Amino acid sequence: MPPAVARHFQAPRTGGWCRLEGVTKLFLSQAQLEEWALADKADLREGRLVVAAEGGSDWPLTPAVHVVQLVSGEDTHQLVSRVKTEEQLGRLGAEQMADSILVGDSAYEVVPGYVTEVGAPAPERKPNSETDLLAAFILNKMG
Questions:
Q1: What domain of life (predicted)?
Q2: Which end of the chain has fewer CB atoms within 10 angstroms, the N or the C?
Q3: Is a pLDDT exceeding 70 seen at residue 3?
């Protein structure tokens, strides 16, 4: 993990709050969560992401997949490069098998993981809340 990213993730709790103007949805791969768990940085408990560096703060997680590529058939639902929850896949009639999904006659390669929602920071404030730090870390890690 790059030091700049690690610094964001391990930053001490500074207290305070920020006005939330929206919600940001973030996809976290199962592999990333396992890496964080092995490093004792975060864990998945009872459907929630628990971040150790933030005093055990937690965020709800929803099972999801990131659709990486079309393997066969046609992308009639325009799923490539999208993140879909299990509920959304169910509405499409999709069947998930490990790292792939089938939607009708189309097969896709996917990355299993979770979606979490964090509040978006107000633009005029410097990120300092645990939600801001989590969002910054995840965005930097995914980028």
A1: Bacteria
A2: C
A3: no
The residues facing 70 across adjacent strands are 108
Nearest to 77 by CA among 61, 99, 101: 101
The secondary structure of residue 52, as a DSSP letter, is: G
Largest CA distance in the chain: 52
Q: What is the DSSP letter of 123?
A: T
User: What torsion, rounded to 10 degrees, do the Cα atoms 132, 134, 140, 141 define?
Assistant: -170
Distance CA 67, CA 109 (A): 6
**Nearest Cα to Cα of residue 13 among 47, 54, 62:** 54
Residue 35 predicted with pLDDT over 70: yes
Tokens of 82: 């999208």
User: Average pLDDT of the chain?
Assistant: 79
Summarised one tens digit per residue, pLDDT across range 41-99 is 888 889 898 888 777 788 899 999 999 999 999 999 999 999 999 999 999 999 999 99
Check residue 10 and give its pLDDT: 36
Tokens (6 digits) for 104: 């009708």
Contact 40, 52 (CB under 8 A): yes
Q: What one-letter code names the amino acid at 4?
A: A
